[in-house]
Automatic annotation (TrEMBL):
<feature type="transmembrane region" description="Helical">
    <location>
        <begin position="125"/>
        <end position="146"/>
    </location>
</feature>
<keyword id="KW-0245">EGF-like domain</keyword>
<keyword id="KW-1015">Disulfide bond</keyword>
<dbReference type="InterPro" id="IPR042350">
    <property type="entry name" value="ATRAID"/>
</dbReference>
<keyword id="KW-0812">Transmembrane</keyword>
<keyword id="KW-1133">Transmembrane helix</keyword>
<feature type="disulfide bond">
    <location>
        <begin position="110"/>
        <end position="119"/>
    </location>
</feature>
<keyword id="KW-0472">Membrane</keyword>
<dbReference type="InterPro" id="IPR000742">
    <property type="entry name" value="EGF"/>
</dbReference>
<dbReference type="GO" id="GO:0045669">
    <property type="term" value="P:positive regulation of osteoblast differentiation"/>
</dbReference>
<dbReference type="InterPro" id="IPR032675">
    <property type="entry name" value="LRR_dom_sf"/>
</dbReference>
<protein>
    <submittedName>
        <fullName>ARAID factor</fullName>
    </submittedName>
</protein>
<feature type="domain" description="EGF-like">
    <location>
        <begin position="78"/>
        <end position="120"/>
    </location>
</feature>
Length: 156
C-alpha cells in the first residue's frame, strides 16, 4: 500500500480497513505522530516505511530490523510480542492465550470452553434460559399494558 507523498498530516481513518497489508509506505508525508492504535490488527505487516521524524510503531523492539536513510525509517520483519523474552506489561489472564494484534500490540484470546470477562466463565452462553426470561418478561409487560390501556380505549 503506497501512501507516500500524499500530503497526509495524520493517519487516514480508512487505514484501519487495510489490516491485510504486508507492505506500507508512509514516507514523504508531513505526519506529526502515529497514534497508538493506528496499526491495531496489522498482524501481516512486514515492511513499513515512515518519515524520519517518526519512530516505528511499537518501538524498535517490535521489529527485527530498523534501518534509517536520509529521509525515511524502514521497519522490517514484525516480531511476535508474545514470543519475546521481555515480560509483558499486562499478562493475559488465566484460561487465555496471547496473540499478536499489530506491531508491539497483543490481544488475549480465551481458550475453549472459556468466555466472558477475563475468560472466567466456562461453557457456553445460556441462550435457552436468557430467551425464556426475555420472552416471559415481554409477554407479561405487553399483557399488562394492553389490559391497562384497553380501559382508556373504551372511554374514547
Amino acid at each position: 500500500l503506497d501512501l507516500s507523498n500524499c500530503s497526509l498530516r495524520s493517519v487516514p481513518l480508512g487505514l484501519a480497513e487495510a489490516t491485510a497489508a504486508i507492505v506500507l509506505d508512509l514516507t514523504e508525508n508531513p505526519l506529526a505522530t502515529l497514534p497508538n492504535g493506528s496499526f491495531l490488527g496489522f498482524i501481516h505487516l512486514q515492511s513499513l516505511a515512515v518519515p524520519l521524524t517518526l519512530e516505528c510503531p511499537g518501538g524498535s523492539d517490535a521489529w527485527q530490523n530498523v534501518t534509517v536513510d536520509r529521509s525515511s525509517r524502514l521497519c522490517q520483519g514484525q516480531r511476535n510480542p508474545c514470543n519475546s523474552s521481555v515480560e509483558l506489561a499486562w499478562p493475559c489472564p488465566e484460561n487465555s492465550v496471547c496473540a499478536p494484534d499489530g506491531p508491539g500490540l497483543i490481544q488475549c484470546l480465551c481458550d475453549n470452553p472459556f468466555h466472558g470477562y477475563r475468560c472466567l466463565r466456562e461453557g457456553t452462553f445460556p441462550m435457552l434460559l436468557f430467551s425464556g426470561i426475555l420472552s416471559t418478561a415481554t409477554v407479561s409487560l405487553s399483557l399488562l399494558l394492553w389490559s391497562t390501556q384497553r380501559r382508556k380505549a373504551k372511554t374514547l
